[in-house]
Amino acid sequence: MSTAAHDHHGPEKGLLRWVKTTNHKDIGSLYMWFAFAMLLVGGAFAMGIRAELLQPGLQLMDPQFFNQLTTMHGLIMVFGAIMPAFVGLGNWLIPMMVGAPDMALPRMNNWSFWILPFAGTILLSTFFMEGGAPAFGWTFYAPLSTTFAPDSTDFFIFAVHLLGFSSIMGAINIIATVLNMRAPEMKLMDMPLFVWTWLITSFLLIGAMPVLAGAVTMMLTDRNFGTAFFDATGGGDPVMFQHIFWFFGHPEVYIMILPAFGVVSHIIPTFARKPLFGYSSMVYASASIAFLSYIVWAHHMFLTGMPVAGELYFMYATMLIAVPTGVKVFNWVATMWKGSMTFEAPMLWALSFVFLFTIGGFSGLMLGIAPADIQYHDTYFVVAHFHYVLVTGALWSIIAATFYWLPKWTGKMYNEKLAKIHFWWAMISVNVLFFPQHFLGLAGMPRRIPDYALQFADFNWISSIGAFAFGASFILLTYVVIDCVRNGTPAPARPWDSAKGLEWTLGSPAEYHSFNTPPSRAVILEESQHS
Amino acid sequence: MAEIEKRKITKRFWITLVSAPILMLLFAVFVMPPIYEVLCDITGFNGTTGKVDTEQQYDDVDDERLVEVSFFASTMPGFPVQFGPKVTSMDVVPGKFYTTSYIAKNNTDKEVVGQAIPSVAPSDAALHFKKLECFCFDRQVFKPREEVEMTLRFVIEPEMDENIQDVSLSYNFFKLDS
Question: By C-alpha distance, which of B100, B80, B97 is closest to B154?
Fold first, then answer.
């Protein structure tokens, strides 16, 4: 190490740098790579699931192992891939977007990342335990997860505790950063939408993750210490588990989509070469979605035998969410209206996000209709719905964000031609994969089954072929990203002509410590998303 | 390094940020379950049935009005007692008390202890389905190879919605340890 002044030192040398780092950019990269690794693991499970479903009958695995795969696929994708990827994006971008030198709590930031690999390892290690991994679905309904679960469930509970810990610390860190580290001249309504949506998401995390921790704690004591929260013999109620789970679970789905809304609100104005339409309505819409997400949970439970009044309330409250979501979609479309659009890779991902996420939103509205849900409940229609919002919604926005900010992160430009080939490959295959699942569900194919009636054979075959093609597309994605990091051509500080935001005023790659002096009011206004 | 003008991070802000998740956890474990129980009792949600202590007289009992009550029984997997209703259904007049019984037979050579959990559907009816006497109030001990008849005395309150003409009552037997 040189004798350079303390305030200008760069990263430490060697591998220990990554263990000890408190730098938001390092930790952001760690989060992103961890999420990517988990995406590949969860994707491998999905390949196993679709391989078994390629044809009717049991070919490759016994039903118990199939159930373990579906359970772990869901858990790994939700808690290991999507959520850490968004925390990674938040780490990388929020300090740069609010004109701060780093996150507010750098050491806690390090801790909240390094919990994750351990939690992931504990979760995955259950595959090698006696009785196998948890096989009760990612929703782990009692009593399947209490009375009838394998011993490895206690490891699953511990892993969920750790993951919850990590998320809550990440959320606290982001709230503290946004509220306290923001450039003094930046008002709340000057903040870019990615920062806004992440701030709102942080409040969702703080409200929802402890409830999940509470639910698994009650499971733990029911399993090992003789309590009966979810056991009817002791005066408990298994249906209460579903209430508590979905009180967490519904905000959770918005935790996974609100930052995506933020990402798309950055990319579309850049490539439409127009300011974002309706900045403040975007902020208020995000906040209303977050509020509504706490009061609609029982629409996941229409079949548990609810009073009609309850069904009506939860149905109408659910429909209400379509209003602020519609505002957002309208604003994105209005931003593009009469814009000078170009279609670089990030824009392609963002555009297809708007299109495909809206399909997922509409199937969600169908599911929210209480009488219709009697037919759709627990069928492949539900599977199609939440994959449209989580794969072509959340994951799409993460890939869009990766391409959009990759020049800023690495200082190099990715290969546009390969990125476009990858986009079309993924775009077509993902629809071949998930669209037929709507038909399967409407025809009555239940979810979470390794075998099915012959009438479902054709669509399952199509869906599986799409799945293999979509899975293979990630090989190309890996290549495009690594090729960019290694051989990309140097990127300018503002690689997209009309991109706005404080992060573009920094160099490419962004300096290890950014904004030692906070940006001035003039710069903040110049780079803001106001129209 | 240039001086960065920082917003002041107050102590109160920290306490709020850190205690919010902890309070939320405590809320989930210690407040949500009792609230849920109270809600079920008030609304009959989830088929929770009620209890009456005395054979009270109901006003305006309409002898012409009949409701069909169907009786169902099930046991949890691994519960070694045969269990079923003596009659599968009966027509009752809301406001009058009726007695029926369930029969259980222990098929093993060991003593079995169990608890029956009732559920009434539709849930609007559960509110007005009251039991004076029920084997589900207590744990049941089945001696080896014993067959027992367990009685149930109930009333449907006349306040129940006139549109409900069928009510089903089901019991699920759970095994208790020891």
Answer: B97
Q: For residue A379, give the DSSP letter.
A: B
Which of B3, B12, B13, B36 would you mutate first to test chain A, the one with the most A CBs within 10 A? Answer: B36
Q: Which of A153, A166, A286, A464 is catalytic?
A: A166
Beta bridge partners of B73: B171
> CA of B48: which chain A residue's CA is closest?
A237
A363: annotated active-site residue? no
Decide if A202 is catalytic.
no
Q: In this structure, are residues A498 and A273 in contact, taking their beta carbons and an 8 Å threshold?
A: yes
ipTM: 0.80
pLDDT at A5 over 60: no
Does the active-site annotation cover A325? Answer: yes
Radius of gyration for chain A, computed over Cα atoms and rounded to the nearest angstrom:
23
- Residues of chain A contacting residue B124, judged by C-beta atoms under 8 Å apart: 307-308
Q: How far apart are CA B113 and CA B140, in angstroms?
A: 6
Tokens of A498: 């009309």
B105 in helix, strand or coil?
strand
Task: Note the pLDDT tens digit of each residue in A355-382.
Answer: 999 999 999 999 999 999 999 999 999 9
Distance CA A54, CA A63 (A): 15
> At B160, is the pLDDT very low, low, confident or very high (cuts 50, 70, 90)?
confident
Name the minimum distance, in Å, from the CA of B28 to any CA of chain A.
5
Rounded CA separation A154/A165 (Å): 17
CB of A143 within 8 Å of a chain B CB? The answer is no
